[in-house]
Amino acid sequence: MQIEDLIELAKRVQAQQAEAQTVEVKAAHRRCPSKLRDTLSSFSNQNSGGILLFGLDENEHFAAVGVYDLQDLQKKVTEQCNQMQPPVRALFTTAEYEGVWICSAEIPSIAYAERPCYYIGAGIQNGSYVRVGDADRHMTDYEIYCFEAYRNHMHDDERVIERATIGFLDKDLLNAFLTERRISRPQFAQMNDTQAMEMLSITRNGVPTIAGLLNFCVYPQGFLPELGITGIVVPGTEIGDTADSGARFLDNKRMEGTIANMFSEAMAFCMRNMKTATIIDPETGKRCDKTEYPVSAIREAVLNALIHRDYSIYTEGTPIQIDFFSDRLEIHSPGSLYGRMSVEDLGFAHPDARNPVLAVITESLTDAEHRYSGIPTMRRAMQEAGLPAPVFINRQNEFVVVLYNHPAEPENPVITSHTADKTAALLQFCRTPRTRKEIADFLGIGTVYHANKRYIQPLVEQGRLKLSIPDKPSSRKQTYTTDV
């Protein structure tokens, strides 16, 4: 960082009156802050790294108060950096600003395979942090496990299920698969069935793996009850909306069996619940049926969920979800994106394989193309249908694909007539200042994210809801009110 950059950063923090995802402000005008480890960990564990800015006081509206001793500050910060595993290598910059000296410590991101960075004194479970907005939050056991699994090349599709035996596998299906392998890979002809199943990771020491059960078991959910798919059709735009009859769901189905069975059932469920328009070519008179969503886009989204979901013990109690709403289709896959992949990389970079064994077997049994073509196919299919590009959402414990069925881009949804009653009730409710969580609960919406996107932000942009802290729109203390 150049001196000019440090001064510009200080000005920006003062203007915004807020810290950020990559900026943490510490006063340090009396002494070096003694507990920087939370932020050192969280900055090191995010791809963008972060900057510790010393010399502004958040409690005094980020006024420039300077640092007590530039040399001693850098020494003590470095000592705390060396208490991390792996050690953090901070890069310091100092500058004179508003008559005092300020200092920045740039904290670089560490390689994904070395994460999580944690405070040695607390251990990996208690000393690992992740940055959320302007706060540092303890990593969950699942988040730590994800890093460790990647670093140690652990693949949960090869995890054995001790209760299972080979006797629970469908012999005909298994024999057909092994025969196909022997034909396409002549070297397999030299192995007996037991050797072949071990080499293909269908079994480990004679015990079926998750990949083996999900592809060949007569009824996999007998051992893994929640490794299935649930499908619902909601008569509205949010969970909790009801039809005129009072029904919460217009269709509700659980899909089980092998991956091939679940895929077939899921596609049948989607086809049954999509609107289909019949178009007659005025010149040829030829009939063409156009589905509400491109079938190829749904196919890829469902296959991706089945093949690339997290099959660890942390998520094996969560099924894949297919949720139809009046304006969109959502496919929820348990587990966040694997390894170094980010949402921005999807379709452009080859991902690390989370379930390589399961992917290879499923490719043969479902005609899935294990060629990293799913995301580009979805994007192309939606574009050709004149619909918005698919939206990909990567959360702490799930990955979501959202397909919209209307041509307008969804970034700034408009409050339409079918939500008018809710809007009026919400404005009345907000005559008393309300938090985002209170608004979501009032609307009966399961997540603050959807309440904010669908109702709060449009009303703020229209000037019908006002922020209690307008200078800090993302503040955790933010409330919303109206004068109506």
Note down, in words, how this protein is organized.
The protein has 15 helices and 22 strands. It is of the alpha+beta class. The chain folds into 4 domains: 3-139, Methyltransferase, Cobalt-precorrin-4 Transmethylase, Domain 2 (2-Layer Sandwich), CATH 3.30.950.30; 157-222, no CATH class; 229-351 and 367-404, Heat Shock Protein 90, CATH 3.30.565.60; 417-481, Arc Repressor Mutant, subunit A, CATH 1.10.10. The strands form 8 sheets. Strands 14-13-17-18-20-19 form a 6-stranded mixed beta sheet, covered by helices on one side. Strand 19 and strand 20 form a beta hairpin. The longest helix is centred in the middle third of the chain and has 15 residues, at 259-273. The chain is globular, with a radius of gyration of 27 Å. The relative contact order is 0.08. Residues 409-419 have low confidence and may be disordered.
Task: List descriptors.
about 475 residues; alpha+beta; 4 domains; 6-stranded mixed β-sheet; 4-stranded mixed β-sheet; 22 strands; about 20% strand; globular; Schlafen_AlbA_2_dom; Schlafen_AlbA_2_dom_sf; DNA binding domain-containing protein; RecG_C_sf
Give me a quick take on this structure.
The chain is α+β, with helices and mostly antiparallel strands and 484 residues long. It has 4 domains: 3-139, Schlafen, AAA domain (Methyltransferase, Cobalt-precorrin-4 Transmethylase, Domain 2, 2-Layer Sandwich), CATH 3.30.950; 157-222, no CATH class; 229-351 and 367-404, Heat Shock Protein 90, CATH 3.30.565; 417-481, Orthogonal Bundle (Arc Repressor Mutant, subunit A), CATH 1.10.10.
